[in-house]
Inverse folding.
DNA sequence: CTATGGCACGGATT
DNA sequence: AATCCGTGCCATAG
Protein backbone atom coordinates (compact mmCIF):
# COMPACT_ATOMS: atom_id res chain seq x y z
CA UNK A 1 0.00 0.00 0.00
CA UNK A 2 2.64 2.40 1.06
CA UNK A 3 4.81 1.63 -1.90
CA UNK A 4 2.07 1.92 -4.43
CA UNK A 5 1.27 5.37 -3.26
CA UNK A 6 4.84 6.27 -2.93
CA UNK A 7 6.12 5.37 -6.38
CA UNK A 8 3.78 7.35 -8.59
CA UNK A 9 4.32 10.38 -6.42
CA UNK A 10 8.01 10.15 -7.11
CA UNK A 11 7.40 10.13 -10.83
CA UNK A 12 5.28 13.20 -10.94
CA UNK A 13 6.97 14.91 -8.09
CA UNK A 14 8.91 17.30 -10.23
CA UNK A 15 5.94 18.64 -12.05
CA UNK A 16 3.70 18.52 -9.05
CA UNK A 17 6.20 20.43 -7.04
CA UNK A 18 6.46 23.30 -9.43
CA UNK A 19 2.75 23.84 -9.80
CA UNK A 20 2.26 23.51 -6.09
CA UNK A 21 5.13 25.86 -5.66
CA UNK A 22 3.54 28.39 -7.92
CA UNK A 23 0.16 28.12 -6.33
CA UNK A 24 1.46 28.53 -2.85
CA UNK A 25 3.72 31.39 -3.72
CA UNK A 26 0.70 33.14 -5.11
CA UNK A 27 -1.30 32.70 -1.96
CA UNK A 28 1.60 33.75 0.21
CA UNK A 29 2.20 36.78 -1.92
CA UNK A 30 -1.30 37.95 -1.28
CA UNK A 31 -0.79 37.88 2.45
CA UNK A 32 0.39 40.86 4.38
CA UNK A 33 2.57 40.65 7.40
CA UNK A 34 -0.20 39.97 9.84
CA UNK A 35 -1.66 37.23 7.78
CA UNK A 36 1.70 35.75 7.01
CA UNK A 37 2.44 35.60 10.69
CA UNK A 38 -0.70 33.62 11.31
CA UNK A 39 0.02 31.35 8.41
CA UNK A 40 3.53 30.58 9.56
CA UNK A 41 2.42 30.04 13.11
CA UNK A 42 -0.25 27.69 11.93
CA UNK A 43 2.24 25.80 9.85
CA UNK A 44 4.70 25.60 12.71
CA UNK A 45 2.02 24.25 14.94
CA UNK A 46 1.00 21.48 12.61
CA UNK A 47 4.14 20.51 10.80
CA UNK A 48 6.85 18.95 12.96
CA UNK A 49 9.37 19.10 10.14
CA UNK A 50 9.42 22.84 10.29
CA UNK A 51 11.65 24.55 12.75
CA UNK A 52 11.98 28.08 13.97
CA UNK A 53 15.17 29.49 15.36
CA UNK A 54 13.85 32.18 17.54
CA UNK A 55 15.76 35.31 18.18
CA UNK A 56 14.66 38.13 20.35
CA UNK A 57 17.51 40.31 19.39
CA UNK A 58 18.00 42.70 16.61
CA UNK A 59 20.43 41.08 14.20
CA UNK A 60 22.60 44.14 13.98
CA UNK A 61 22.67 45.76 17.36
CA UNK A 62 21.55 42.90 19.55
CA UNK A 63 19.01 44.95 21.34
CA UNK A 64 15.87 43.15 22.25
CA UNK A 65 13.23 43.84 19.70
CA UNK A 66 9.55 43.45 20.11
CA UNK A 67 7.49 41.04 18.21
CA UNK A 68 6.75 42.19 14.74
CA UNK A 69 8.25 45.59 14.99
CA UNK A 70 11.53 46.76 13.69
CA UNK A 71 14.41 47.69 15.86
CA UNK A 72 14.00 51.35 16.70
CA UNK A 73 17.66 51.72 17.31
CA UNK A 74 19.62 50.64 14.34
CA UNK A 75 17.43 49.18 11.70
CA UNK A 76 18.45 51.71 9.15
CA UNK A 77 22.14 51.65 9.59
CA UNK A 78 22.89 48.55 7.68
CA UNK A 79 24.36 49.58 4.39
CA UNK A 80 27.95 50.39 3.66
CA UNK A 81 27.92 50.13 -0.12
CA UNK A 82 26.08 52.78 -1.99
CA UNK A 83 23.74 51.37 -4.54
CA UNK A 84 20.85 53.51 -5.62
CA UNK A 85 18.48 51.24 -3.91
CA UNK A 86 19.56 49.11 -1.09
CA UNK A 87 17.20 46.38 -0.26
CA UNK A 88 17.42 44.32 2.81
CA UNK A 89 15.02 42.00 4.44
CA UNK A 90 15.24 42.00 8.15
CA UNK A 91 15.81 38.34 8.57
CA UNK A 92 16.74 35.82 6.01
CA UNK A 93 15.27 32.49 5.46
CA UNK A 94 17.41 29.52 4.78
CA UNK A 95 16.32 26.10 3.83
CA UNK A 96 19.03 24.26 5.64
CA UNK A 97 21.49 25.11 8.31
CA UNK A 98 23.30 22.91 10.74
CA UNK A 99 22.01 23.10 14.17
CA UNK A 100 21.83 20.70 17.03
CA UNK A 101 18.39 21.57 18.16
CA UNK A 102 16.45 18.75 19.61
CA UNK A 103 12.83 18.25 18.89
CA UNK A 104 10.75 18.96 21.88
CA UNK A 105 7.03 18.90 22.03
CA UNK A 106 6.86 22.47 23.15
CA UNK A 107 8.16 23.67 19.86
CA UNK A 108 5.11 22.54 18.08
CA UNK A 109 2.49 23.91 20.32
CA UNK A 110 0.76 26.96 19.07
CA UNK A 111 2.58 30.20 19.60
CA UNK A 112 -0.56 32.20 19.33
CA UNK A 113 -0.63 34.78 22.01
CA UNK A 114 -3.46 37.02 22.94
CA UNK A 115 -3.10 40.69 23.58
CA UNK A 116 -3.18 40.59 27.39
CA UNK A 117 -0.48 37.94 27.55
CA UNK A 118 1.58 39.76 25.04
CA UNK A 119 1.51 42.97 27.02
CA UNK A 120 2.01 41.25 30.32
CA UNK A 121 5.12 39.53 29.05
CA UNK A 122 6.66 42.86 28.13
CA UNK A 123 6.18 44.46 31.48
CA UNK A 124 6.48 41.45 33.74
CA UNK A 125 10.06 42.14 34.68
CA UNK A 126 9.30 45.66 35.71
CA UNK A 127 6.55 44.69 38.06
CA UNK A 128 6.60 43.70 41.69
CA UNK A 129 4.80 40.52 42.52
CA UNK A 130 1.75 42.25 43.90
CA UNK A 131 1.60 44.59 40.97
CA UNK A 132 1.21 41.71 38.59
CA UNK A 133 -2.23 41.00 39.94
CA UNK A 134 -3.19 44.55 39.18
CA UNK A 135 -1.80 44.33 35.69
CA UNK A 136 -3.59 41.08 35.10
CA UNK A 137 -6.81 42.60 36.29
CA UNK A 138 -6.50 45.59 34.03
CA UNK A 139 -5.44 43.56 31.05
CA UNK A 140 -8.26 41.11 31.41
CA UNK A 141 -10.69 43.95 31.06
CA UNK A 142 -9.45 44.99 27.64
CA UNK A 143 -11.99 45.12 24.90
CA UNK A 144 -11.25 44.11 21.38
CA UNK A 145 -9.87 47.50 20.53
CA UNK A 146 -7.27 47.26 23.23
CA UNK A 147 -8.97 49.80 25.42
CA UNK A 148 -9.69 49.22 29.08
CA UNK A 149 -13.21 48.94 30.33
CA UNK A 150 -12.50 49.37 34.01
CA UNK A 151 -11.41 52.46 35.82
CA UNK A 152 -8.34 52.75 37.95
CA UNK A 153 -10.43 53.54 40.97
CA UNK A 154 -12.34 50.34 40.56
CA UNK A 155 -9.18 48.28 40.35
CA UNK A 156 -7.67 50.03 43.33
CA UNK A 157 -10.73 49.41 45.43
CA UNK A 158 -10.96 45.80 44.41
CA UNK A 159 -7.37 45.07 45.35
CA UNK A 160 -7.26 47.38 48.34
CA UNK A 161 -4.28 49.26 47.10
CA UNK A 162 -3.61 52.91 46.61
CA UNK A 163 -4.78 54.59 43.47
CA UNK A 164 -1.30 55.80 42.68
CA UNK A 165 -0.06 52.25 42.60
CA UNK A 166 -2.66 51.32 40.04
CA UNK A 167 -1.81 54.37 38.05
CA UNK A 168 1.82 53.41 38.01
CA UNK A 169 0.98 49.99 36.60
CA UNK A 170 -1.41 51.54 34.16
CA UNK A 171 1.23 53.84 32.86
CA UNK A 172 3.54 50.92 32.25
CA UNK A 173 0.84 49.14 30.34
CA UNK A 174 0.00 52.20 28.31
CA UNK A 175 3.55 52.57 27.22
CA UNK A 176 4.05 49.02 26.13
CA UNK A 177 3.56 47.79 22.66
CA UNK A 178 1.04 48.50 21.16
CA UNK A 179 1.34 51.92 22.67
CA UNK A 180 -1.82 53.19 24.23
CA UNK A 181 -3.14 49.78 25.12
CA UNK A 182 -5.25 49.80 28.23
CA UNK A 183 -6.23 53.43 27.97
CA UNK A 184 -9.76 54.21 28.91
CA UNK A 185 -10.72 55.96 25.68
CA UNK A 186 -9.51 56.54 22.16
CA UNK A 187 -8.64 60.04 23.22
CA UNK A 188 -6.39 58.87 26.02
CA UNK A 189 -4.76 56.36 23.71
CA UNK A 190 -3.98 59.04 21.17
CA UNK A 191 -2.48 61.32 23.78
CA UNK A 192 -0.29 58.56 25.12
CA UNK A 193 0.96 57.75 21.66
CA UNK A 194 1.63 61.36 20.97
CA UNK A 195 3.78 61.51 24.07
CA UNK A 196 5.72 58.50 22.96
CA UNK A 197 6.48 59.66 19.47
CA UNK A 198 9.98 60.80 19.70
CA UNK A 199 11.76 60.58 16.45
CA UNK A 200 12.55 64.18 16.02
CA UNK A 201 9.84 64.93 13.56
CA UNK A 202 7.98 68.13 13.96
CA UNK A 203 4.80 67.91 15.95
CA UNK A 204 2.44 70.80 15.98
CA UNK A 205 2.01 71.72 19.65
CA UNK A 206 -1.63 72.26 18.95
CA UNK A 207 -2.03 68.56 18.25
CA UNK A 208 -2.63 67.85 21.92
CA UNK A 209 -5.36 70.39 22.12
CA UNK A 210 -6.98 69.18 18.94
CA UNK A 211 -7.14 65.65 20.28
CA UNK A 212 -8.30 66.82 23.65
CA UNK A 213 -11.22 68.94 22.63
CA UNK A 214 -11.84 68.24 19.02
CA UNK A 215 -11.76 64.52 18.48
CA UNK A 216 -15.41 64.33 17.63
CA UNK A 217 -15.18 67.09 15.09
CA UNK A 218 -12.11 65.50 13.65
CA UNK A 219 -13.72 62.18 13.01
CA UNK A 220 -16.60 63.92 11.30
CA UNK A 221 -14.26 65.99 9.17
CA UNK A 222 -15.63 69.18 10.62
CA UNK A 223 -12.41 71.03 10.09
CA UNK A 224 -13.76 74.49 9.68
CA UNK A 225 -15.81 74.23 12.82
CA UNK A 226 -12.76 73.13 14.71
CA UNK A 227 -10.59 75.83 13.25
CA UNK A 228 -13.07 78.40 14.45
CA UNK A 229 -13.16 76.85 17.86
CA UNK A 230 -9.42 77.08 18.21
CA UNK A 231 -8.98 80.26 16.25
CA UNK A 232 -6.47 78.91 13.77
CA UNK A 233 -6.48 78.32 10.05
CA UNK A 234 -8.24 75.38 8.56
CA UNK A 235 -5.07 74.27 6.84
CA UNK A 236 -3.38 73.87 10.16
CA UNK A 237 -6.21 71.71 11.38
CA UNK A 238 -6.03 69.61 8.26
CA UNK A 239 -2.33 69.12 8.69
CA UNK A 240 -2.80 68.04 12.25
CA UNK A 241 -5.59 65.75 11.25
CA UNK A 242 -3.55 64.01 8.63
CA UNK A 243 -0.68 63.72 11.06
CA UNK A 244 -2.94 62.06 13.56
CA UNK A 245 -4.44 59.64 11.15
CA UNK A 246 -1.14 58.56 9.73
CA UNK A 247 0.82 58.33 12.94
CA UNK A 248 -1.58 57.58 15.71
CA UNK A 249 -4.13 54.91 16.32
CA UNK A 250 -7.17 55.48 18.48
CA UNK A 251 -7.68 51.75 18.87
CA UNK A 252 -4.33 50.30 19.87
CA UNK A 253 -5.62 46.75 19.96
CA UNK A 254 -6.48 46.82 16.32
CA UNK A 255 -3.09 47.79 15.07
CA UNK A 256 -1.41 44.58 15.96
CA UNK A 257 -4.19 42.16 16.36
CA UNK A 258 -6.57 43.45 13.81
CA UNK A 259 -8.25 40.56 12.15
CA UNK A 260 -10.34 40.14 9.06
CA UNK A 261 -13.19 41.95 10.65
CA UNK A 262 -11.43 45.25 10.33
CA UNK A 263 -10.16 44.85 6.86
CA UNK A 264 -13.38 46.06 5.40
CA UNK A 265 -12.49 49.47 6.63
CA UNK A 266 -9.68 50.86 4.52
CA UNK A 267 -9.02 53.78 6.81
CA UNK A 268 -8.06 51.42 9.55
CA UNK A 269 -5.67 49.63 7.26
CA UNK A 270 -3.10 52.30 7.43
CA UNK A 271 -2.79 51.90 11.14
CA UNK A 272 -1.35 48.48 10.72
CA UNK A 273 2.28 47.71 10.84
CA UNK A 274 3.83 48.34 7.50
CA UNK A 275 4.93 45.44 5.35
CA UNK A 276 7.65 47.51 3.80
CA UNK A 277 9.68 50.34 5.22
CA UNK A 278 11.40 52.85 3.02
CA UNK A 279 14.01 55.07 4.51
CA UNK A 280 16.49 57.49 3.15
CA UNK A 281 20.15 57.58 3.76
CA UNK A 282 23.04 59.82 2.95
CA UNK A 283 22.93 63.18 1.27
CA UNK A 284 19.48 64.66 1.90
CA UNK A 285 19.56 66.25 -1.52
CA UNK A 286 20.25 63.05 -3.31
CA UNK A 287 19.48 60.28 -0.88
CA UNK A 288 19.52 56.57 -1.43
CA UNK A 289 16.59 54.51 -0.41
CA UNK A 290 16.76 51.73 2.02
CA UNK A 291 13.86 49.47 1.34
CA UNK A 292 13.10 46.85 3.87
CA UNK A 293 10.62 44.10 3.38
CA UNK A 294 9.40 43.14 6.77
CA UNK A 295 9.53 39.62 8.02
CA UNK A 296 6.75 38.78 10.41
CA UNK A 297 8.52 36.45 12.77
CA UNK A 298 11.70 36.82 14.66
CA UNK A 299 14.09 34.08 13.84
CA UNK A 300 14.91 31.83 11.00
CA UNK A 301 12.71 29.21 9.50
CA UNK A 302 14.38 26.02 8.48
CA UNK A 303 13.90 22.35 8.03
CA UNK A 304 14.19 20.67 11.36
CA UNK A 305 17.47 18.74 11.11
CA UNK A 306 16.61 16.46 13.98
CA UNK A 307 13.40 15.51 12.28
CA UNK A 308 15.27 14.80 9.08
CA UNK A 309 17.65 12.55 10.94
CA UNK A 310 14.78 10.76 12.57
CA UNK A 311 13.41 10.00 9.14
CA UNK A 312 15.95 7.24 8.71
CA UNK A 313 14.50 5.26 11.55
CA UNK A 314 10.96 6.16 10.80
CA UNK A 315 8.47 3.46 11.57
CA UNK A 316 7.07 1.84 8.44
CA UNK A 317 3.58 3.13 8.87
CA UNK A 318 4.72 6.67 9.47
CA UNK A 319 7.35 7.13 6.81
CA UNK A 320 4.99 8.35 4.13
CA UNK A 321 3.43 10.83 6.45
CA UNK A 322 6.77 12.09 7.62
CA UNK A 323 8.11 12.45 4.15
CA UNK A 324 5.12 14.48 3.27
CA UNK A 325 5.71 16.70 6.23
CA UNK A 326 9.26 17.37 5.14
CA UNK A 327 8.21 18.10 1.61
CA UNK A 328 5.57 20.46 2.81
CA UNK A 329 8.00 22.27 5.04
CA UNK A 330 10.51 22.55 2.26
CA UNK A 331 7.90 23.87 -0.08
CA UNK A 332 6.74 26.45 2.37
CA UNK A 333 10.24 27.74 2.89
CA UNK A 334 10.90 27.90 -0.81
CA UNK A 335 7.68 29.74 -1.38
CA UNK A 336 8.47 32.20 1.35
CA UNK A 337 11.80 32.94 -0.26
CA UNK A 338 10.02 33.42 -3.54
CA UNK A 339 7.50 35.71 -1.98
CA UNK A 340 10.14 37.87 -0.48
CA UNK A 341 12.02 37.95 -3.71
CA UNK A 342 9.01 39.12 -5.65
CA UNK A 343 8.19 41.71 -3.08
CA UNK A 344 11.72 43.02 -3.11
CA UNK A 345 11.74 43.24 -6.87
CA UNK A 346 8.46 45.02 -6.88
CA UNK A 347 9.52 47.54 -4.32
CA UNK A 348 12.80 48.14 -6.04
CA UNK A 349 11.06 49.12 -9.23
CA UNK A 350 8.43 51.07 -7.42
CA UNK A 351 10.87 53.08 -5.40
CA UNK A 352 12.71 54.06 -8.55
CA UNK A 353 9.57 54.94 -10.46
CA UNK A 354 7.93 56.81 -7.65
CA UNK A 355 11.06 58.36 -6.26
CA UNK A 356 9.61 61.83 -6.39
CA UNK A 357 6.51 60.74 -4.63
CA UNK A 358 8.39 59.06 -1.84
CA UNK A 359 10.58 62.07 -1.29
CA UNK A 360 8.27 64.95 -2.00
CA UNK A 361 4.79 63.69 -1.36
CA UNK A 362 1.41 63.14 -2.90
CA UNK A 363 1.61 65.73 -5.62
CA UNK A 364 4.47 63.96 -7.33
CA UNK A 365 2.95 60.57 -7.78
CA UNK A 366 3.16 59.23 -11.28
CA UNK A 367 0.24 57.28 -12.56
CA UNK A 368 1.50 53.83 -13.37
CA UNK A 369 -0.58 50.77 -13.86
CA UNK A 370 0.06 47.38 -12.43
CA UNK A 371 -0.01 45.98 -15.91
CA UNK A 372 2.86 48.15 -17.11
CA UNK A 373 4.96 47.32 -14.14
CA UNK A 374 4.21 43.66 -14.53
CA UNK A 375 5.55 43.75 -18.04
CA UNK A 376 8.64 45.53 -16.92
CA UNK A 377 9.67 42.98 -14.36
CA UNK A 378 8.31 40.16 -16.38
CA UNK A 379 5.68 38.71 -14.12
CA UNK A 380 1.99 38.25 -14.59
CA UNK A 381 -0.23 41.18 -13.76
CA UNK A 382 -2.10 39.19 -11.21
CA UNK A 383 1.16 38.64 -9.39
CA UNK A 384 1.52 42.36 -8.95
CA UNK A 385 -2.06 42.69 -7.88
CA UNK A 386 -1.60 40.10 -5.19
CA UNK A 387 1.64 41.56 -4.01
CA UNK A 388 0.16 44.99 -3.77
CA UNK A 389 -3.18 44.29 -2.23
CA UNK A 390 -3.62 44.64 1.49
CA UNK A 391 -0.06 45.67 2.09
CA UNK A 392 1.30 48.90 3.39
CA UNK A 393 4.55 50.77 3.26
CA UNK A 394 6.11 53.25 5.57
CA UNK A 395 7.61 56.24 3.81
CA UNK A 396 10.66 58.15 4.99
CA UNK A 397 8.31 60.76 6.40
CA UNK A 398 6.93 58.15 8.73
CA UNK A 399 3.62 58.06 6.95
CA UNK A 400 2.16 54.65 6.44
CA UNK A 401 0.33 54.24 3.17
CA UNK A 402 -1.17 51.30 1.35
CA UNK A 403 1.13 50.13 -1.40
CA UNK A 404 -1.73 50.42 -3.82
CA UNK A 405 -1.27 54.16 -3.53
CA UNK A 406 1.72 53.81 -5.83
CA UNK A 407 -0.75 52.96 -8.53
CA UNK A 408 -3.19 55.72 -7.80
CA UNK A 409 -4.19 57.30 -11.05
CA UNK A 410 -5.53 60.53 -9.70
CA UNK A 411 -3.73 61.28 -6.49
CA UNK A 412 -1.60 63.99 -8.03
CA UNK A 413 -4.62 65.77 -9.41
CA UNK A 414 -6.43 65.46 -6.16
CA UNK A 415 -3.55 67.02 -4.26
CA UNK A 416 -3.40 69.84 -6.75
CA UNK A 417 -7.08 70.31 -6.19
CA UNK A 418 -6.64 70.32 -2.45
CA UNK A 419 -3.93 72.88 -2.75
CA UNK A 420 -5.99 75.17 -4.90
CA UNK A 421 -8.85 74.99 -2.49
CA UNK A 422 -6.62 75.50 0.50
CA UNK A 423 -5.30 78.68 -1.02
CA UNK A 424 -8.48 80.00 -2.48
CA UNK A 425 -9.65 83.43 -1.48
CA UNK A 426 -13.29 82.85 -2.07
CA UNK A 427 -14.89 79.44 -2.44
CA UNK A 428 -14.52 78.38 -6.04
CA UNK A 429 -17.19 76.51 -7.87
CA UNK A 430 -16.42 73.23 -9.52
CA UNK A 431 -16.46 74.81 -12.95
CA UNK A 432 -13.85 77.34 -11.92
CA UNK A 433 -11.78 74.60 -10.40
CA UNK A 434 -11.82 72.78 -13.70
CA UNK A 435 -10.35 75.84 -15.35
CA UNK A 436 -7.65 76.30 -12.75
CA UNK A 437 -6.71 72.66 -12.92
CA UNK A 438 -6.39 72.77 -16.66
CA UNK A 439 -3.78 75.49 -16.19
CA UNK A 440 -1.81 72.94 -14.24
CA UNK A 441 -2.16 70.63 -17.18
CA UNK A 442 -4.85 68.51 -15.66
CA UNK A 443 -7.79 68.30 -18.00
CA UNK A 444 -10.71 66.73 -16.25
CA UNK A 445 -14.45 67.11 -16.40
CA UNK A 446 -16.42 69.22 -14.03
CA UNK A 447 -18.16 66.16 -12.74
CA UNK A 448 -14.84 64.64 -11.88
CA UNK A 449 -13.86 67.59 -9.76
CA UNK A 450 -16.97 66.98 -7.74
CA UNK A 451 -15.98 63.36 -7.36
CA UNK A 452 -12.51 64.24 -6.17
CA UNK A 453 -13.90 66.69 -3.72
CA UNK A 454 -16.09 64.07 -2.17
CA UNK A 455 -13.20 61.63 -2.05
CA UNK A 456 -11.14 64.17 -0.20
CA UNK A 457 -14.00 65.15 2.05
CA UNK A 458 -14.09 68.72 0.76
CA UNK A 459 -17.42 70.43 0.99
CA UNK A 460 -19.10 72.08 -2.01
CA UNK A 461 -18.31 75.72 -2.62
CA UNK A 462 -21.36 77.23 -1.04
CA UNK A 463 -20.70 75.40 2.21
CA UNK A 464 -17.05 76.30 2.38
CA UNK A 465 -16.24 79.37 4.37
CA UNK A 466 -13.29 81.43 3.49
CA UNK A 467 -11.54 82.70 6.57
C1' DC B 1 -30.15 80.20 -13.81
C1' DT B 2 -26.11 78.11 -11.50
C1' DA B 3 -24.01 74.60 -8.71
C1' DT B 4 -24.03 69.99 -7.33
C1' DG B 5 -25.22 65.22 -6.45
C1' DG B 6 -27.26 60.65 -8.26
C1' DC B 7 -27.35 57.21 -11.65
C1' DA B 8 -25.61 54.77 -15.08
C1' DC B 9 -22.72 53.81 -19.12
C1' DG B 10 -18.36 52.53 -21.43
C1' DG B 11 -13.79 51.90 -21.39
C1' DA B 12 -9.73 50.80 -18.82
C1' DT B 13 -7.70 48.11 -15.20
C1' DT B 14 -7.17 44.21 -12.28
C1' DA C 1 -15.22 38.18 -15.55
C1' DA C 2 -15.35 41.62 -12.09
C1' DT C 3 -14.28 46.06 -10.61
C1' DC C 4 -12.93 50.79 -10.83
C1' DC C 5 -12.97 55.34 -12.80
C1' DG C 6 -14.13 59.36 -15.50
C1' DT C 7 -17.91 61.36 -17.52
C1' DG C 8 -22.45 62.80 -19.44
C1' DC C 9 -27.23 63.53 -18.52
C1' DC C 10 -30.80 64.88 -15.62
C1' DA C 11 -33.12 66.20 -11.32
C1' DT C 12 -33.03 69.08 -7.55
C1' DA C 13 -31.70 72.76 -4.35
C1' DG C 14 -30.54 77.33 -3.60
Amino acid sequence: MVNQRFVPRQNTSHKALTTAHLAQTMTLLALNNQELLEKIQGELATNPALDLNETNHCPTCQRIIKNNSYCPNCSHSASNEDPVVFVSSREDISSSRNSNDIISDDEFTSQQEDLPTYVLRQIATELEIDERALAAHILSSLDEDGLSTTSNVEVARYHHVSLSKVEKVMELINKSDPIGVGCSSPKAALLTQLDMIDDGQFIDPLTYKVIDIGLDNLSKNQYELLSKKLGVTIQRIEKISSFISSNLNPYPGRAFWGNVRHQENPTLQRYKNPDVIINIQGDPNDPQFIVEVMWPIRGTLKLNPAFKKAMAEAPENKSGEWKEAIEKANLLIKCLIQRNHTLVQLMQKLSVLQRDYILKGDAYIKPITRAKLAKEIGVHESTISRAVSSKSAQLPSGKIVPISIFFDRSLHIRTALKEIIANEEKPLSDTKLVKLLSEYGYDIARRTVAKYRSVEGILPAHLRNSQ
